[in-house]
Amino acid sequence: MRIVFLGPPGAGKGTQAKLIVKDYHIRQLSTGDLLRENLNRGTELGVKAQAYMVGGNLVPDSVILSMVGEEFQKPELSAGYILDGFPRTYPQADGLDQLLKEQNQSLDHVLVLNVPDSELIRRLTARRSCSECGHIYNLVFNPPKLDGVCDHDGSPLIHRSDDTEETVVNRLKVYQNQTKPLVDHYKPQGLIRNIDGTGDVQEIYQRILTALK
Ligand code: AMP
Q1: Which residue among 18, 48, 160, 180 is the active-site one?
Q2: What integer pLDDT is reported at residue 113 of this predicted model?
Q3: Confidence of residue 99 (pLDDT cuts 50, 70, 90)
Q4: Which of 117, 11, 171, 19 minimizes the C-alpha distance to 3?
Q5: Is 88 annotated as catalytic?
Q6: Per-residue confidence (pLDDT) for residue 5, from 0 to 100
Q7: Degrees to nearest 5, angle at CA 81 with 80 and 85
Q8: CB within 6 Å of ligand 1 — which residues?
Q9: Which residues are bridge partners to 29 per DSSP?
Q10: Which is it for strands 127-130 and 2-6: parallel, antiparallel or unpaired?
Q11: How far apart are CA 38 and CA 52, in angstroms?
């Protein structure tokens, strides 16, 4: 199963992707996670990406495409994958088409997780994640049992530096202008599955399962 996951920041792509990965035994490839890993390790790629990420702007397509191209060489992806946060622009979608062609593959679904902007701002500014296992919490509707500490492994929770209100507003604009139009790229192929991203995590997941059947 090969899936592209579209949806604005804060729609819950990361959370839902982790559930899909478990049930379908496929890999999650999150360009945001890969970039943050590079940033933390201080790699050349991380240094290049940092200024864009801090402002909530997109990292240049050439950087993203070479990073994803490398990931596509790895055997771990052969059982299937869910692309979370990629593609985000038309050139990236064209680059993905090219990668798929080279590997004689095609996509099965493009999930589009829809959530109203007002709800996204509320969710993102209250989002926290575990510094170790990456589990995602929300201080308003899914808080950890102990303040600032992960329920699963006791590690400290972090607030992403690009989850401030100002950056979030810019990230939403970038999504509307550059990423949402990709729906038109995939529509003619009959791949679009629109999902209502409001409600609780399990309720949303059930909608996704129905769409993937
Ligand atoms: P995310 O975790 O998907 O919200 O991504 C965090 C940030 O990483 C974004 O705001 C962008 O700066 C950058 N980023 C992640 N994926 C991409 C991509 N496919 N293209 C360009 N920039 C990206």
Answers
A1: 160
A2: 97
A3: very high
A4: 19
A5: yes
A6: 98
A7: 165
A8: 9, 31-32, 35, 52-53, 56-59, 64, 85-86, 88, 92, 162, 171
A9: 83
A10: unpaired
A11: 14
2-115+196-212: CATH architecture? 3-Layer(aba) Sandwich (3.40)
Predicted pLDDT of residue 162: 87
Q: Which two tokens stand for residue 175?
A: 């999504």
**Which residue's CA lies nearest to atom 2 of ligand 1?**
32
Among the residues of 3-140, which ranges form H helices?
13-24, 31-41, 44-55, 61-72, 90-102, 117-125
Report the pLDDT value the prediction gives residue 46, as an integer from 0 to 100.
93
Is 122 a residue of the active site? no
160-177 tens-digit pLDDT: 888 888 898 999 999 999
> Sign (positive/negative) of CA torsion 33, 36, 41, 42?
positive
Q: Tokens representing 192?
A: 């679009």
Q: How far is the CA of 85 from the centre of ligand 1 (A)?
A: 6
- Give the pair of three-digit tokens for residue 95: 């680059």
pTM, full prediction: 0.90
The domain segmentation of the chain, as residue ranges, is 2-115+196-212
